[in-house]
TrEMBL record:
Keywords: Calcium, Metal-binding, Muscle protein, Repeat. Coiled coil: none annotated. PANTHER family: PARVALBUMIN, PARVALBUMIN ALPHA. GO terms for molecular function: calcium ion binding. It comes from Oncorhynchus kisutch (Coho salmon). Ca(2+) 1 binds at residues 52, 54, 56, 58, 63. This is Parvalbumin. Pfam families: EF-hand_7.
Length: 109
């Protein structure tokens, strides 16, 4: 698993359980529950590159949609509405993607 050694398995399980129902995803709650809030910028950058699956240097909308699957392959995809809200929260410069600095800022917001 991508986050092995960085996050606790039980925290990942709890965060995913909390977000299991469609439209229940809240990025702030998720980042807190999963244990990313308070991690070093270095760890958060590592986390960013797990989510940036094609290694483009940006988290695009299709990667954001599959965000939960970065934590567990069996997790659900985010809904259209959740994906758009997540993107809007993180995309400070309005380019339609989340860059590494935007991601670090979003987690610690
Ligand atoms: Ca990407």
């Amino acid at each position: 698993m991508a986050f092995k050694g960085m996050l606790k398995d039980e925290d990942i399980a709890a965060a995913l359980k909390h977000s299991a129902a469609a439209e229940s995803f809240n990025h702030k709650e998720f980042f807190t529950k999963v244990g990313l809030v308070g991690k070093s910028a270095e760890d958060l950058k590592k986390a960013f590159y797990f989510v940036d699956q094609d290694k483009s240097g940006f988290i695009e909308e299709d990667e954001l949609k599959l965000f939960l699957q970065t934590f567990s392959a069996g997790a659900r995809a985010l809904t259209e509405k959740e994906t758009k809200a997540f993107l809007a929260a993180g995309d400070v410069d309005g380019d339609g993607m989340i860059g590494v600095d935007e991601f670090v800022t979003l987690v610690n917001a």
